[in-house]
Amino acid sequence: MRALVFDNDLSYRTDYPVPIPAEDEALIRVTAVGICNTDLEITKGYMGFNGVPGHEFVGIVEECKKKDLEGTRVVGEINIGCGRCRYCRNSMRNHCTNRSVLGILNKDGAFAEYITLPVRNLHILPDSIPDEKAVFVEPLAAAFEITEQVDIKDSDMVCILGDGKLALLAAQVLALTGCKLIVFGKHKNKLSVLKNLGIETGIDLSPDERRFDIVIDCTGSLSGIVSALNIVRPRGTLIIKTTTAGRSKIDLNSVVINEITITGSRCGPFEPAIKSIESKTVDLTSLISDSFPLKDGIEAFKYASKPGVLKIILTPN
Q1: Which of 137, 187, 281, 307 is deepest in the core (most CB within 10 A)?
Q2: Residue 246 has what pLDDT?
Q3: Angle 137-149/270-278 helices, nearest 10 degrees?
Q4: Rounded CA gap, 168 and 189, in Å?
Q5: 216 near 264, Cβ under 8 Å?
Q6: This prediction's pTM
Q7: Where is pLDDT greater, at 244 or 150?
Q8: HEC readout, 60-71
Q9: Which domains does the chain have, with CATH numbers?
Q10: Mean pLDDT of the chain
Q11: What's phi and psi for 102, nearest 5 deg?
């Protein structure tokens, strides 16, 4: 089958083997897949991954033991737990120490014609959600994870740092809480997506202005975390939302002195993400920069890496 394969370098292949589904898995024909920042970081060495990247997919079930799923259009949760450990037994398979992760850890991903995933990971999509919006289900679920982890009240002053795809999704999700929200970024064209939705944005962030109850860092950079620690109030909450290939050191004295709560935030619930897309409470069209056929995937990756570019979608043809 055709696939984008990373093995210290990204290449397009036409002879990659079609995956064989395990007893509990479905074979899924991919119809669209988004390029996210994690995919870009993988090509820089993140997780030491080799194989087919890609996890923001939508596809059609081609083969499955559960016959009523065949022919249905699905998206899928990307973490695959062992099902036996204490994390899996306590509904925390995202943290299973033996897990694999689609296109990220020990599991070929969706920049290919076919993937496999356990049936328990799949969610059937309403017909009203087109493929180009369905690829946002997984990252939108990650944005909803913030509201699962932290109780955000309408009186809270909340700041999001970053203007990438995840930041723009997180801003739309947090705006639904009614909180006092502002998003700081570097690219006016990206922030304009939020301004058009009535969400306050800014370019110049004043340092040492400890006024925010909650700060969400979506920058994926050390400087972003430092800025976040400078603006979160004493006994406030810092949510770190992105991962990168690099490792960095940070002075945690201010965390102790100001008694800051730090929360890491990763994958999230699919159900509210699907419902919000279906009900059109989030704007996704403005987040799509372009689409490419899979055969032009290397060019698509280069384009996705450019400043100011938002979601790039790959399709089979």
Answers
A1: 137
A2: 66
A3: 120
A4: 12
A5: no
A6: 0.94
A7: 150
A8: EEEEECCHHHCC
A9: 3-136+284-315 (3.90.180.10), 140-264 (3.40.50.720)
A10: 94
A11: -55, 120
- Residue 60 tokens read as 């059609």
Query: Is it the case that residue 204 has pLDDT exceeding 80?
Result: no
Read off the pLDDT of each residue in 287-298 and give the average, rounded to a whole number.
97
> What is the per-residue DSSP string for 114-183?
EEEEEGGGEEEPPTTS-HHHHTTHHHHHHHHHHHHHS---TT-EEEEE--SHHHHHHHHHHHTTT-EEEE
- Which pLDDT does position 221 carry in this prediction? 83
> Which amino acid, one-letter code, is at 68?
D
**Residue 146 reports pLDDT greater than 70:** yes
Q: How far is it, in rounded angstroms, from Cα 255 to Cα 247?
A: 19
Token reading at 307: 């400043």
Record the tokens describing residue 175, joined without a space: 């705006």
Query: CA-to-CA distance for 228 and 180, rounded, in angstroms?
Result: 17
CA atoms within 13 A on the CB side of 65: 11
Three-state secondary-structure class, residue 101 = strand
**By the 8 A CB rule, do 248 and 219 touch?**
no
